[in-house]
Structure formats: structure tokens, C-alpha cells
Amino acid sequence: MIERNKTSLSLNLLLPGVLCLLLFGASLLSIGILSLRPERLAREGIGLNQYLRFFSDAHYLTYFWRSFKVSCYGTLLTLFLGYPVAYLMARSGGRVRLMLTLVLVVQFFTSYIIRAYALMLVLGNNGLINRMLMKIGLIDRPLPLMHNETGVAIGLIMVSLPFMIFPIYSVLKGIDRRLEEAAESLGAGEWQVFWNVTLPLSLPGMAAGIILVLLFQLTAFIVPGLLGGGYYDMVANFIYDQALGVLNIPFAAAVAMVMLAITLILVIGLNKLFQRSLKDVSA
Amino acid sequence: MKRGIGKEKSLSRFFWMLGGLVIIGMFIPLVVVFMISFNPGNELIFPPQGLSLRWYFNIFRHPSLLSSFQFSVILGIIATAASLFIGLSGALVLTRRKFRGAETIAGLLMSPLVVPQVVIGIGFLSLFSMMRIYHSIPCLLALHIVLTLPYTLRVLIANLSRCPVSMEEAAMVLGAGKYRAFLETTLPIIKPGIIASAIFAFVTSFDNFTASQFLIWDRATLPIEIYAYITKENDPTVAAVSSLLILMTVGLVILMERWVGLETVTG
Fold first, then answer.
1. Which range, of A104-118, B173-187, B233-247, averages the lowest pLDDT?
2. Residues 236..275 of A with a Cβ closer than 8 Å to B: which?
3. Which of A170, A203, A168, A195 is nearest to A274 (CA)?
4. CB contact under 8 A, A13 and B7
């Protein structure tokens, strides 16, 4: 005879987790408080000065516009480039699949700094691409592939590819192949099967990938920092610069609050949107 | 006949071509890092002009790189251990006790994943400076535990919800105590989950840059030293450091493949 309460756990076990949660909540709250400080070094006082300053100067909005623009087309390109890789992984057999997975997981676990640095060596004026193009005589001056929007976009796409590939792969490999075979036996060509069967079935993976990648690219710091080299700062770089460069923490906190609000609205909105459209597909 | 003989295979061909190019494009930069790390000159030129280990020896002339590596490893291990402990006890309660608000708490514990790293960094900076704490070690540790907890918790909740509590009850019927029952039935079953979440947590802590950079009053982690080195000096020393770290990652991934399978990463 065992008593029920012998196996049931004490709720106290959740206490350390709740403490972490409180710490996290308190840190977000303290940004909110500091963002209301009226002046750069003020230790007290409450006001909306920082927010007014931010919204009244269009110059500050350019950082948000850059992040938004680059992450929108960056996410679409990441989807376009990532999907085929996920498809290959899902459709290839043992050896090939293992090799592809190994390459991607190594990428995934290699730090962003190293991957961004590696791309600097490829895209720079003395980098692999410019050297090769000059050697074969296609160009006589290095192409500006770094320290501009192009470099940042390429970097963001390359670094976030695993976030797109893994969720799509995970969905694709679970799709019942007989559905595709049925469509084929009814006379559908390869592209038709893909557009009408495979692609709609893989929408949940694409939705997850899009949210992950958009979130990553919108809030990226390292890639615009290294591949933009200060010439193409995005929101995260601007916030850091305001906080620890010019030591205007209240203003940095206000911009951070705006960034937090925009990210949360985007993520929650996209989640809702995808959930509704996925319901429509399955209905 | 079911493959549709004679039907054009242009889709597969297109996917193989594009997918292959993407994979190669992801692979080449890492190869370039390796090759440049052996470059004898101090320019970052590809292809390298010779073969030398000069930049590998140069790492040892930079105590900041060495000490920050040591600090990052220790920080990562402690944060991982703490995160595993907090994650495991939390996951046990969240999967086995049904109480109101359990879902909300689980959701909130995942929320650091959707909050931008810069915002988390500013948040910890604001909080600790309001409390007048300006010491990197406790602050970074707290930050890294909060950042890694979503990973350990998620993996362990998934593992525990597939692991029936009846085994533990059976062990207790046979006379085992509460802890022994857990240690000898449930723990072996969720061991792969523990290993996988430990690896995730360690890598997350070891690689974290964006949030950590706000808390480096008296100690810096390796990513912060590397970033500073790239933006200030930028000779192939970083290529050498990167090559070593990539090799470490490859080793870790191979071990992971052996121990728990890569499906834990790819889903």
C-alpha cells in the first residue's frame, strides 16, 4: 500500500525556477523604471522625456527601419535557401543525411562571432570572393561586400539558416510519403506534387522557422556589428552604443522598451496568424 | 511505375543544386578560417601565403584570451549545473503535479527565448546597478542561468512527460525509498535528455555575447575578448582561436551523435 502523497512532489521544488522568473521579471521592470528617468544621469524623477525624444527624431527611427527591412527580406531569402536543404535532408538516405546533419549541427553550435568572423574573411576586400573574382579578371577593384547593407544581410541569412532548416526538416521527414505517391499516381508532375501536397503539409515547419529567424535577424547584434563594421548599425547596436558608449542609460532603456514591444507584438501576431492559417489548411 | 518514369525530375534537380550550393556556402567560411589560421603573414589573405603555426603560438602571448577562456569554461559548467538542477526540479513538478497556473509558469520560464538579448542585457545591467552590485561573476552567473533555463526545462519536460511515474511507484512498492526509486527508475530513462540539455545549456552559456557584454565590469568572457580582438587588432590570431573552437565543437557534436543522437538538435 503506498500513500498518494509519497509519490506526489512538493511544490517547493519549483521555487528556484520561480526565483529565476522573478529575477528576469525584475530586470525587465527595472528597464521600464530607468526609461522614465528624465535625464541622462538622473537617479530619480519620472517622465516621458526619453520616449518623446526617441519618437520626435526621425534619425533614431532609421535603426528600426533598417532592422525591419533587412529582417523581412532576410527571412524570406533564408526560407528560400533553407527549404531545399531541409528537403534534401528529409529525402536523402542514411549516409548523406548524417553528413548533412553533422555539417548543420556543427554550424548551429559554433558561436555567432566565429561564423560572422569567418564570413568577414570571405566577403572582405582581401576575402575569398574578391580575390577569386580579381584573379579570373572579372573585376579589377574589390566589390563592396562588407561594411554595408549587403554584408549585413548576407551575414544574417548565413548565420540564421539552421533556425530555418531544422524545423522544416523535422516536419518534412514526418510527412507520409504515400500522400505524394498517391498524387503522382494520379498523374501529377513533380512540381505539382510539391506545390499541392508537400509544401502545404510543411507549413507548420515553415511557420516555426520564419518566427525564429525573424526574431533572430530583427534583434541581431554581432552580425551587424562585425559585417556592418559600424557602417550599418541596427537597433541592438544602437541600444548598446547609447547604454555603454555615450552612457545614456535612460535613453537606451526607452529604446529597449520600444524594441521589446515591437518584437513581442510581431512574435505573438505571427503566432496567431500562422495558427489561424494552419487551421484553415487542415480543415 | 509509381515513380512516374519519364516524368521530368526538374524539382529534385533544382533542390539538389540550390541545397548543395547553400551547404557548400555554409561550409566554405569555416574552411577559410582554418586555412587563414596557418598564414605566416599578418594579413587576412586568402589563399594563405605559406604554412606556419605562428598564430597558434601567438594565442599564448595574450593572457586575456587564455584567462577569459578559462573563465568562460568555469562559468559555463557552473551555470549548466545550476540550470540542470533548477530545470529538473521544475520539470518534475510541472509534469507530475497538476495545479492551476502550471502552464503559465512553464510558458513564462520559456520567455527569455523571445526577449531580445540586448534587452535582457540592459535589464540585468539596470537591475544590478540599481542594487549597486558591480561584480561580473555573480551577475553573469545569474544571467546565464536565466538564459539556459528554457533549454534545460524544455528538453526535460519533453523527456519526463514520456516517462510514466508508475515505474517509481512500483519501485516503492518493492521497498525502495522515494529518492532511490527516482534515482534507479526515472533518472536512467531521462539520462539522454539530461545529457542533451547539459550540452545545450553549456553551449548557450559559453557562446553568449550580446547579453553578457553589459555585465563585464571586472571579468570578461571569451566571446567578448574575441569580439574586442576582431574590432581592434584583427590579425590571424582570432582565426587560430576560431579553428580550435570549431574543432572543439566538432568533437562535441560527434560525442553528441554517439551518446544521444543528433535528432535532439534537429527535431
1. B173-187
2. 236, 239-240, 243-244, 249, 252-253, 256, 259-260, 263-264, 267
3. A203
4. no
